[in-house]
Specification:
seven-stranded mixed sheet, SH3 type barrels, 2 domains, 5 helices, BirA Bifunctional Protein, domain 2, alpha+beta, 13 strands
Length: 259
């Protein structure tokens, strides 16, 4: 993939292909530290040996089977309190990509930016921001999408091949996704925040439905009704109270398991 050519404005203007690395986010961080990277630089690897997910979780990915990459962005147009809009835009882009290969009704965003197909995890993103004064200086958007891997140690994981029965050419689907991501990033740059939030909520897993959640070490009934300005989930409880929860405070429950 060294000569990946994309018809995009920002995403993929520079492409770095590494046969293997510990983490593409770590490689992207090194590029930033060396000074003034090109916005939209994509760091891609066939084998990520220490991929990370949210809250320090590892990301399982067989070598040469999946998409594992990071994108360096410079979203200085976003204030610190607006940074979750980037997370929403990334999640929407992944959802749009997967919906082109799966039934759209089966694809959903699990807050904050995991993607589920038929309630199984197929993709996740880890976004690391560098702040400067009151804006974002750099954002490293690390993304993993399960494509051709068919067996997982984690029972609630899946891949495109598991869902469709087809094998995919990784360069082709990577191009497809990066073009979609570029379009979503352009919309973000235009500050269409209401549109982005409404699109995100429309795709959000279990939005507006009563379900059991793991909240502060106990299982409680709740209904996701909104996001606050910092991206926390606003949940209504059976007794009529509403509260905003951060990632460390709430977890989804699937057949008595947390996801």
């Amino acid at each position: 993939m060294n000569n990946l050519v994309l018809n995009t404005l920002i995403i993929g203007q520079k492409f770095i292909n590494l046969p293997k690395c510990l983490s593409t986010n770590l490689e992207a961080r090194t590029i930033i530290e060396k000074g003034f990277p090109i916005e939209g630089t994509v760091v891609y690897t066939n084998q990520q040996m220490a991929g990370r997910g949210q809250m320090g979780n590892t990301w399982e990915a067989q070598s040469g089977k999946n998409l594992t990459f990071s994108v360096i962005l410079k979203p200085s147009f976003l204030k610190i309190e607006q940074q979750f809009y980037l997370s929403m835009s990334v999640a929407i882009a992944i959802h749009r990509f997967l919906s082109q290969h799966c039934l759209k009704k089966d694809v959903s965003i699990k807050w904050p930016n995991d993607i589920l197909v038929n309630e199984k995890k197929i993709s996740g993103a880890l976004i690391e921001n560098t702040l400067q004064q009151q804006t974002l200086q750099y954002s490293i958007v690390g993304i993993g999408i399960n494509i051709n891997q068919t067996e997982f140690a984690y029972p609630l994981a899946t891949s495109l091949q598991n869902i469709t029965g087809q094998s995919y050419e990784l360069e082709s689907v990577l191009k497809e996704f990066l073009i979609i991501l570029d379009k979503e990033y352009q919309q973000l740059r235009q500050s269409t925040f209401d549109v982005i939030k409404n699109d995100y909520l429309a795709l959000l897993f279990r939005f507006g439905e009563w379900h059991t959640y793991q909240i502060n070490h106990q299982q409680l009934q709740g209904k996701i009704i909104d996001l606050d300005s910092s991206g926390r989930l606003i949940v209504e409880h059976r007794q009529g109270t509403m509260k905003a929860y951060s990632l460390k405070e709430i977890g989804y429950v699937f057949e008595s398991k947390e996801l």
